[in-house]
Amino acid sequence: MRVSFKELLHKYNAGECTPEERAIIESWYHQLELPGLKELTDEQLLEIEQLTPSLPAKQRERLRWVPVAAAVAVLVTVGGYFLYHSGSVPEPQPLAIIQDDALPGSDKAVLTLANGQRITLADAKNGELAKQGGITIKKKADGELNYTNGEEQDEDALSMINTVSTPRGGKHHLVLADGTQVWLNAASSITYPVAFNNQEREVKITGEAYFEVAQHVGQPFRVVCKGQRIDVLGTHFNVNAYPDEPVIKTTLLQGAVRVTADGGESALLKPGQQAVLNSLQHVTVSSVIPETAIDWKEGDFIFKNETLPDIMRKVSRWYDVDVDYGHYNNSKLTFSGEVSRSRNLSVVLKMLEATAAVKFTVKNNHITIADK
Prior knowledge:
Layout: E1 2-4, H1 5-13, H2 19-31, H3 42-51, H4 57-64, E2 65-67, E3 72-77, E4 80-85, E5 97-98, E6 106-107, E7 110-112, E8 118-120, E9 127-132, E10 135-139, E11 145-149, E12 161-165, E13 170-175, E14 181-184, E15 189-193, E16 201-212, E17 221-225, E18 228-232, E19 236-241, E20 248-254, E21 257-261, E22 266-269, E23 273-277, E24 283-287, E25 300-307, H5 308-319, E26 322-324, E27 334-340, H6 345-353, E28 358-363, E29 366-371
Parallel strand pairs: 5-28, 6-13, 11-13, 16-17, 26-29
Antiparallel strand pairs: 1-2, 3-4, 4-27, 7-8, 7-12, 9-10, 10-11, 12-15, 13-14, 14-16, 15-16, 16-19, 17-18, 18-21, 19-20, 20-23, 21-22, 23-24, 25-27, 28-29
């Protein structure tokens, strides 16, 4: 059953909403931080109507059409929506206890040069940061770190190793000397030579990174991370290799890559495929929606049937908070939905809480999960 969002608002005014539909309206309205309501007035309806044109087209569409079913509680907010898969719909409850809200992450990272010098990129001025082996390292106006080959590149540059690392709550974009673009997610790092030789290009990562590899014939590109290596020529792919994740995921968007586990097992990926390496060094390949793997790069959280621990690990890294799962540490509850990573922590938690029988308490950068 599909219901026009505007029709749903009018049903609410007329007192004709089902409990599920009422929960949608009240939860959505709460996210706007407007006064509590017993009935939406015409003025309030107009206010809501005027909000939607400023949203991206795909989000306006999600506000315009809301699936409603007895088995699914749906929360719609400005910038996101969630579906909780359950056998019943929980009654509306007070939302998360937010004593200390957390701001979303931002562009921040540390560059470690070959001589050990550390440069905090968020504090560094735009322009030239350093020169190493004839390679100029610059920070652009948009924060991007850029390596540029000079006319007098030294052979020493090949042995000079740099590292860019992001903290929890950070991200960064850099361009290597060969033109390869790299986006780092929170709590991640990349280690690479200042310049590459003519035979091969190799970098090492921890955490999560998205690559757009510059194609150079006869000069393959290799990414080494926990438990595996990835060999490419010219391609776009994402690697999720966080130490606290149970598996390593390599997702291909364009081109071709070969994933090889340290144990020797390997797989050749086609666009739209994902290789998953487990703790036993076994590689499995499946078709996925690639956009869900690079949601972080595009500024969103996109969840597709993900468990609460899966989601909270991402939340923890982006908002730089710790999580006490209680008895939800191995929860099998699954969620699907989307919300902008530019929203405060409270918005994400309220959306999750309004769709399941859990409650969150946030205090001193610590989230506690408990039953409602």
